[in-house]
Amino acid sequence: MKNARSRSTVTLIGASAVTLIGASVRAAAQSAALAGLQVIGADQFGDRDCRAVCKDFVLLREPSDGHITFTARDFVAETLSQSSPWPPHLLVVGGFAQDCQTLDHAGFAASPELIQPAFLAQLASEVGMQFPTTFSADRQSRPHAPARTPDPPQPASTRWLWKDLSSSGGLDVRWANPPDAEIPFNNPAPRRSGHPVYQRWIAGKRFGVSYLSDGNTVVRLGTCRSLHTKKAAGPFVYSGSYGPVSLTAPQNRQLDQLGETLVANTQLSGLFGIDVIIDAQSKLWLLEINPRWTASSELIERDLIRRGVLRERESLIGAACKIHFPTLDPRLSLPSVADLNARIGQSVCHHPPLLKQVIFATRSGKLDCDALLRLCTDSITFHDIPSSETPIVAGHPLCSLIGSGDWRSSCPPWPDLRTVVRAAQAAVC
């Protein structure tokens, strides 16, 4: 398999073209195509359904050896240097933020302060939310200065996490000893550049809230429940989402205020997500801000389509591109923040939540793609499908499943779902 195409073979198609880069761009690429955009994709997997929707594709990682031979930064720099009648419409949709943050471009112009605990603590305070006590995990910065005024003395049962704020998907989160313990943390992740911290663990349910902003106004698009699983030393590896889900009116008002305050303070624009925890007392805790398309965005988009909020040839990536790129083809019909705000206000959701589940391989080998696709039904489809030549590694993500059904009912169809998941895992041989 070819590592990456050369710069000369990746050309911008025109004013309706967008280049998407991320760890995996499949869902974002499908969203862009819905809006009539022509997509150049660049990610580390090159899944079948991603390549199928892209006009051109660049593989940033050779799956057979796991080494990045053509880095995200190299790709972005070369894309930005191309001569074309149109400025490059390049959008980072997941991962690589650190690699690209020093490059000046509208598609990844989020402020570095969005991951700073002091900023997050102040933002949470402004809207009446909580933020977990957080300390720097950099040994050179000891004694640990809290990122905010410490909470009252914690009971002996308080648990701590070690996490890298520049990472995503729960890949660099570990249980930790207290910050002042002799041993800094248990089961450490490999050391690398980033923003390591100790953070108090908050018991509760985790949610991802999706927003769209034009830098002045913002609309809350929906909220999904986040699902996690334990993988090796990682206790909170992302494993899926379901939603949109309903929260209480006071919680929704607080989340609206959170988005509005964030945008007022930072002029953040485009799609972004905010992760929160709701504890047993129904209090909201701010965890992190993701200034991009997120893992649950495709569920929100599917819901907005079935409710008629997004119309024919409209999508969330399309709406974000309209905000980021003024030179985008004006003939494209793309909704504004005001459009979506009005439509959501007039729309009532009568549909059950959607489910997205990451399926992890139980054995190594190659995937029988035909056997996997035969498992699709009217209510269950598979996505992020590797090619039949891609080596599958046990314990790693195999593909994802999106299902529709009343997951809120007292007797949801989990047994059938488990059967389908096992059958998908058995398609590796």
UniProtKB/TrEMBL annotation:
Q: Which residues form the ATP-grasp domain?
A: 121-318
Q: Name one GO molecular function term.
A: metal ion binding
Region annotation Disordered: residue ranges? 136-158
Q: Which UniProt keywords apply?
A: ATP-binding, Nucleotide-binding, Signal
Keyword Membrane present in the record's keywords: the answer is no
From the UniProt annotation, give the residues forming the signal peptide: 1-27
Q: Which Pfam families does the annotation name?
A: ATP-grasp_3
Name listed for the protein in its UniProt record? ATP-grasp domain protein
Q: Which organism is it from?
A: Novipirellula galeiformis
